[in-house]
Each structure stands twice: as C-alpha cells, then as structure tokens.
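Figure 2 data, in text form.
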Amino acid sequence: MGWTPCALSAVTTALGLGSLYVSHIIPVKMFGFYSAVGVLLGLGVLFVLLPVMMETWPLAEEAKRITSRTAGGTTRRERLLRSFANFVVVRRGIVAPVCMLILLVCACGVLFIETSVRPVKFFDPQSVWISDYRWLEHRVGPMASIEVVLGVDDRSGLSTVEQLLVVDDVERAIGDLDCIGATISAAAFAPSLDDLRSGAASPGEGGQTGRAMLKVFGVRDPVVLRRKILNKRLDRHRNLFVENRYLNENSHEDLWRITARAKGSGELDYERVMNDVRRRVDGFLEQYGSLQQHIKPVYTGSAPLVYVAQQELFDGLFKSFCLAFGLIAIVMVVLLRNVLAGMVSMLPNVFPAVVIFGAMGWRATAVDVGAMMTASVALGIAVDDTLHFLTWFRRALDRGRTRRLAIIEAYGRCAPAMTQTTLIAGLSMLAFALSAFQPVSQFGLLCLSCWWRLWWAT
C-alpha cells in the first residue's frame, strides 16, 4: 500500500535537492547532487532492509493496535483527528482564504529579498576571528582588496615609464574615492614620477646654465631627457616588478597590478564599491582618446569575488527553485491526471518556502548560502506529505467515499505519520542551529521552520 507514495516522494525529494546542481557555487552544487543520490539510495534501504528488520524484531504493540482497528475500535488519537478534519472541512470558507492571504502577503515579501555572502557574517560577532579582524581593520587598515589589472598591449607604443605614468594616474584616481582606504602599485617602488607629467619644463627649471647645457646637447625639454634616463633605468629593473608580482609580461601585452583596499569591509556594499571603481577607472581612461583601446582594465580580488558570489547566490536560488517547482509540478500533473489539480496541489508545497523567505524579505534579513539551499530542499520534502495525503484521498474516493469522508480517512491514515516525521526531521535540524558557522546555523533554523509550516499547511 505504501510503495507508490514512498517511491514518488523519494523521486520528488531528489528532484528538489538535485535542482541545486544548477548553481555555480560548488558547495551548493555538490550538496544538491550527493543529497539527491542519498535520498534515492535510502528508498532502496526502506524497501529492502526495513521489512527484514520488522520481521526479525516484530512490533508487538503495533500489531495489537492494528488488530483493534480491524475489529472496529477507534483510538483517542483517531477520534481527535476526525474532529480536526471535520473542523477544517466545515470551515473551509475561512481556512482557505486566510491561507491564500498569508501566501500572497509573503509572496510580495520575496521581492525584497537581499542576499549576502560577506565572510564576517559567517561567524558570531563575538568570536575571536571577527574581533581580530575588526581590530586590524580599525588600527592597521582596510582588509577587503580590489585588484585592478591594466593590460597595455604592444601596439600602444608606450614605453615603460609612460606605462608606469598611466598606472600611477589610475591608482591616484581610485584612491580619491571615498570608499577606498589605501592603494599600492608598481609606481610606489619607482622613483618619483610627479615631475615627469608635464611635456615642458617649468619656468626657471635648472637655471640659465642648465638650459644652455641642454641646448648644446640638442635637448630642448629637460622633462623629455629625464623620461629617457628613467626609462632606461626602469627597463633594466623590470624584473624586480615581475618578481614582486606587480607586473606580468607576455608576448602581446604588459599586465600592471593595482591593489586597492576598501573601507568598512565588514558592512561593505560590494556592488556600490565595484560600480564606483569601474566608473572612475573607465572615465579616467577616456581622457587618453584613441590610446584607450590599447589599455584594458580587469577587475578581480576578494571584494569583486564576493560581489559576483552574491549575485550568483540570488540567481541560483531563483533558478533552482523554479526548476524544482517545474519538475515536481509535472510529476503531480501526471499523478493526478489533471493539469489544474496538479497545479492546485503545489500550493501547500510552496507555502513553507514562500512564507519563510517572504518573512525574511519583509524583515530585510539577508539570505546567505545556507538559507539559499532551504527553498529547494523544503519544496522537495514538502511534496512527500502531499503525495501521501493525496494517495489515500484518491483511494478513499475510488472505494466510493464522499469527498468529506475521503478527507477524514486521509487524515486518519497520514496525519500521525506526518506529525511524527515533521517532529523528527525538524528537531534533528536543531543540531545544525548550534553551529558557530552562521550559514549552517541558518540552514538548520530555516529547515525547522519550513517543516513546521509544511505540517500546518498540509
């Protein structure tokens, strides 16, 4: 009697978990894959090992209860479930609208979800790691790095000193941003470049004697002479820039590294900082005119990485949830042999995830990598109870029961098991809530909340 709902439940749970495989965040992808495989393997254990154990160690009390039911007796629990089922059915005109209203309100809150993968949020604010991090940031300097790599191709015709002037100018432009606390590049280890920025000497430079000597040697501008001398010195020592990882040379371009440190990395708005840096660098390079096409900036570092991961987290959440919903909805439509009935049956399945994430959206609670996995996991597991309930409901209808009696019978068959599994699964997740690693802790708490709301919705 149970192999059909159990098999379908395992498949839909595996679909919900497996949908996480679309994420580009490797830990999330692997979690989805291995947990889906584990659920399917568990189905085999359920069908093969559990009957053997029940035959080897018979459940005497359960046998007595089944005998009592067969004889026509009813237990206190069954009477309580029958009363509750009658209450829900009789007041369906109130229960259904209230549930739909809660669903719609929370669905609006989903639109305001904010994602976060800030490393400082992964641990308790009182932990020694976070306190040391904040101490260093306050007394030594900003910690979040932004790496801007300027690629200057060979067709630019720029000498080493001219490339270094571009690097120094871009570094200064980045350092002028309010969100940047410090910058460093190869220009910091070169002789001063300030007096090489002008194409002509300043009035009185070098005195009358100095200018006369330059004219004798055919040099009309002392700045040009200094550039040539400095360029030869820099060419002889380019290997020092390479060894210290501020310059990379290849066959078609030179790559110059500029490191910037963003202020307040603990509460940093990574998107705003990256947009500010891009606009400043791109706007500054525009002043070089046609030379700009030979200078290509690339942005990397810890801050851009966190920003990209934050965007991927939201995209992965949306894609995996939609994929899980679509695949499970197809299974429900095929099972019920009716498109409308299949879509309606999905309402209690999405109810827990929508309520939890909608509440997080209204409260402006950030969704991290642990919370991101909860939606698809909850959807896949939510279908289990729905499938069991609908299976017994359909069987009762096939035996000629009215819809009301079929609902009451489905309650009697499923409600105890659904309640017990909800308590077992939900309370077992509290072990994760004790973790000091916040994504794991949030994952456990949200799973507990989702299972409780699933039981209530079903």
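Caption note: The chain is about 65% helix and 10% strand.
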